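User: I'm preparing a small set of examples for a lab meeting where we compare how different chains pack in three dimensions. I only have the primary sequence for this one, and I'd like the structure in token form so I can line it up with the others. Please keep the answer compact; I'll paste it straight into my notes.
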Amino acid sequence: MDPFLSLLHSFSLSLSDNELFSLKFLCREKIGKKKLESIRYGGELFSILLEQQLIASDKVSFLEELLKNIKREDLVSQLKQFVEEGEANAPDDQPDVHEKSIEVICENVGREWKMLMRKLGFSEVKMDRIVAANPFNLQEQVIQSLREWQKWKGKDAKVTDLIKALRGCNLNLVADRVEQ
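Assistant: Understood. Below is the structure token output for the 180-residue chain.
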């Protein structure tokens, strides 16, 4: 998977509705009004910026300016870190371990996902946002919450923490499957 697309995807997931609105406003001179009105989440905006070659893995100054304008210094620093590390050093091996775990958890946790996320120290507000963004898709709620947890914890997001939390929720069968 392209590390730059993964980075843009994580940015997209962390944008609030107000931040997305601000980004769309800032792009008015670059993107037509009709296209801007159809954008519902950050990934769509980033796709258009990629298509128009306003951003690329080796061309991030426009994206950096956008993020600075909406006061998302955390994302600016992630972007700078991406550029400094370069694509070759991007940590794409870390998510692979988690992806398998996330897949197993999604297939087996179901409605107990909120209890699991509470055990992992995830906030109610973030869970509510995820539910609001995916009101009728339980599996997507689980996936997004686990990815948000992974982003929140960064390098401290460990599979052992997931297993411990699953066991704490008496989801031992799921924990056993994740261990495998």
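A couple of notes for your slides: The mean pLDDT is 85. The chain has two domains: 3-87, 97-179.

User: Perfect, thanks.
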